[in-house]
Automatic annotation (TrEMBL), chain A:
InterPro entries on file: AAA+_ATPase (IPR003593), ABC_transporter-like_ATP-bd (IPR003439), ABC_transporter-like_CS (IPR017871), P-loop_NTPase (IPR027417)
Transmembrane segments: none
ABC transporter domain ranges (all copies): 3-229
GO MF, one example: ATP binding
Similarity field: Belongs to the ABC transporter superfamily.
Source species of the chain: Mucilaginibacter aquariorum
Protein name: ABC transporter ATP-binding protein
Domain of life: Bacteria
Keyword Transport part of the UniProt annotation: yes
Protein keywords: ATP-binding, Nucleotide-binding, Transport
UniProtKB/TrEMBL annotation, chain B:
Keywords per UniProt: Membrane, Transmembrane, Transmembrane helix
Residue ranges crossing the lipid bilayer per the database entry: 21-40, 60-82, 110-136, 156-178, 185-203, 241-259
Keyword Aminoacyl-tRNA synthetase in record: no
Organism of origin: Mucilaginibacter aquariorum
Protein name, entry field: ABC transporter permease
Length: 298, 265
């Protein structure tokens, strides 16, 4: 495990914002750390970087205890927390050069990073004049500068346009293919599900789910989605015939999926009883819905 | 040590385009030029004085303004400026998640502020001497070239530097803890005015109040040995200077423990 926490808790005064969190982030994974705004994601990340003193519990990174191996661990982590921390009076390149000086990284590496995040042309421009997306890309370049083994990114796609989001996603997937581990937080599952290998879902400071992205999909029961001319009549009719109807809206109704045969049976039953079936198919709830179910169940 | 040196260099790199840094250069240039213009235009008043008197009159323009108000205010500003760079850019979190010890980051920042103060006062000495000698070149009737004040000036400005360390350490900590401009600057100004009032009224305990030290330093600089005027001696280590140094060390160390325990926002 690259990151392993046990019973991690944190309180701001009397308010407990992180409750007994046990994270397990395997090496080589893209770990999506999901939760609505205010769930405790940033607080957790700050504890992982030793910026907040851990209330209770332990943090091990690269198998070492964080507090007693702080400098060694931090030398292998690149991070971007909330909005990127950028000196507005310096140019984009100067921001990177300053960090390069602190991390003892060459200017050549700085130029490579500028190229990687496509800021070479804007390198000489004051960072204060950058757009939000450019600042975010500069923040990512800063995080990547030391070629860290572990990247901790807090909502890195905030403020990026769809193209920018895709670029970041592809970049992160390339990095992981090269052996790195990425811990990335987001409040949007849709953004994460295309790249994450592992997912942790946090709400009100508590870990609601942790596992691989497939585990998450597996707990997602398939349904039969039926599109008919009158969903209310059809639902009542199916209930009278001992089918469970899970959900119903203006266009569709949903019945738990058991087998393909059952889809045929329902279709026949509806058609024979004078209802028009426009479509009927096996359907997975999208992860977005699942995420909402998990975070709202508590 | 390496972390400290890297942090110190980085402090220079990121502040070299800010007013905090340029202030250390502009302030001595400005005050020394004003003194130059003042003496140049009123040279008739100076011609009759002996060379040492000319130097003292000329140097007191800079020393007087620094001792009374400018030095405390510049110190307050430097302490604010080096910390404000991080507050404004929201970079404390990145600074403290670097693979560099918190002690190195903290002490490099403090010593960089001290370095700016040192630079400013050194340039005061340099420009004071340079403009004085320039005066005797452009106005040969002035006799600045007949007396050497360098050592005395170095001693006085060194005393001023020591006397400002108490203010620096207090203001540094306040500016580090408070992100806004008004609290540390406001408190600093009020304390400075109080200090000037206390020191100028010769209140017997003003040596205990750090904001009164620069003015106290100027007032207590000449050794009272009743010798001939040519034997002007500077008393550097007066009790206000000791108090300033003690406050600086205590607040600097206390500040580190506060920073270490503080959660980074």
């Amino acid at each position: 495990m690259v990151i392993k926490t046990e019973g991690l808790s944190f309180s701001f005064g009397a308010q407990q914002v992180v409750k007994s969190l046990s994270l397990q982030v395997p090496a080589g994974s893209i770990y999506g750390f999901l939760g609505p705004n205010g769930a405790g994601k940033t607080t957790t990340i700050k504890m992982l970087l030793n910026l907040l003193k851990t209330g209770e519990g332990s943090i091990h990174i690269f198998g070492q205890e964080l507090q007693s191996n702080r400098i060694n661990i931090l030398s292998q982590i690149g991070s971007l927390i909330e909005q990127p921390a950028i000196y507005h009076h310096l140019t984009g390149k100067e921001n990177l050069m300053n960090r390069a000086l602190l991390l003892q990284v060459s200017e050549q590496r700085v130029d490579e990073m500028l190229k990687l995040v496509q800021l070479t042309n804007a390198a000489g421009k004051k960072a204060g004049q950058y757009s939000l997306g450019m600042k975010q890309r500069l923040g990512i370049a800063l995080a990547l500068l030391s070629d860290p083994k572990l990247l901790i990114l807090d909502e890195p796609t905030n403020g990026l346009d769809p193209n920018g989001i895709i670029e970041i996603r592809e970049l992160l997937m390339r990095l992981v293919a090269g052996g790195k581990t990425v811990f990335i937080s987001s409040h949007l599952l849709a953004e994460i599900e295309k790249m994450a290998t592992h997912v942790g879902i946090i709400n009100n400071g508590k870990l609601m789910f942790q596992g691989t992205i497939h585990d998450l999909q597996n707990i997602n029961q398939p349904m039969i989605r039926i599109e008919v001319d009158n969903t209310v009549d059809a639902a009542n009719f199916l209930k009278r015939n001992n089918f469970t109807v899970n959900d119903i809206n203006h266009d569709h109704l949903y019945v738990p999926f058991i087998s393909k045969q059952q889809i045929g049976d329902i279709n026949t039953l509806l058609v024979q009883n004078g209802m028009t079936v426009f479509s009927i198919n096996k359907h997975h709830k999208d992860l977005e819905q699942l995420f909402l179910d998990i975070t709202q169940s508590n | 040590m390496k972390g400290f040196l890297l942090s110190f260099r980085s402090e220079f790199y990121k502040t070299r385009k800010t007013l905090g840094f340029w202030g250390a250069i502009i302030l001595p240039v400005l005050i020394s030029s004003l003194a130059f213009v003042a003496v140049y235009t009123k040279s008739d008043n100076f011609v009759k004085m002996p060379p040492m008197g000319q130097w003292i009159q000329f140097s007191m323009i800079g020393l007087g303004s620094m001792g009374s108000l400018l030095l405390p205010i510049y110190t307050i500003f430097v302490a604010y400026s080096v910390n404000n760079v991080e507050h404004k850019a929201d970079t404390w979190k990145t600074l403290f998640s670097l693979p560099i010890s918190r002690w190195a980051v903290y002490s490099a920042k403090f010593l960089y502020a001290l370095f700016l103060l040192f630079l400013c006062l050194t340039l005061f000495v340099v420009f004071n001497v340079a403009f004085g000698n320039l005066l005797s070149v452009v106005k040969p009737e002035l006799k600045f070239n007949e007396y050497h004040i360098e050592l005395l000036l170095i001693q006085v400005y060194y005393k001023l530097l020591l006397s400002a360390l108490g203010i620096l350490s207090i203001q540094f900590l306040l500016s580090l803890l408070w992100a806004d401009f008004l609290k540390p600057m406001g408190l600093g100004f009020v304390a400075t005015i109080t200090g000037v009032i206390l020191a100028s009224n010769n209140w017997e305990y003003s040596y205990l109040f750090p904001y009164a030290h620069p003015m106290g330093a100027i007032k207590s600089m000449v050794k009272n040995n009743n010798g001939p005027a040519r034997m002007l001696e500077i008393d550097i280590y007066t009790k206000d200077v000791y108090v300033s140094l003690i406050i600086a060390v205590v607040v600097f160390i206390a500040g580190y423990y506060i920073v270490q325990r503080k959660s980074v926002k």
